[in-house]
Amino acid sequence: MFVLCPTMARMSQLVLRYFASDDGCLDVAVISDKFSGHGGFWIHDQDVRVFGEELSTYPIRPEAPLTVAWGYEMLEGENLVVGVEIVPENSRGDLRVRVELADYTERSERVRTSFQTTYAELDRFRTAIAALMDRMAEEAILRGR
């Protein structure tokens, strides 16, 4: 008989921190109900700004999810280091945030998880990313449930 251990409910969230340098480094942490992960990659600040601006898209359509991918070469498989996809979850306007993070040196070490959020939280995240990139905040958090 296989028994799953109960897990304590955790607040789901995606946390971004940006460290400016010649290349720039985006530090990414994700926590969902059952999984968590931490990673990052060298990303130009303009790429992070563009991602933040794209979060104002409304409505997000199932056939055109909001996606961002950072990593090596083809940005898929083990070359993907940081990936985020936001898609509609249901007809009530909830959104599903899918996150994939890999260790940038040991790319086979990775976590894939997802959580639910809302357009209101997505808009707060968009504003927080702008503040992060303007050096007015230390982190940007997308809260989920």
UniProtKB/TrEMBL annotation:
Listed name of the protein: Uncharacterized protein
UniProt organism field: Aquibium oceanicum
High-level lineage: Bacteria, Pseudomonadati, Pseudomonadota, Alphaproteobacteria, Hyphomicrobiales
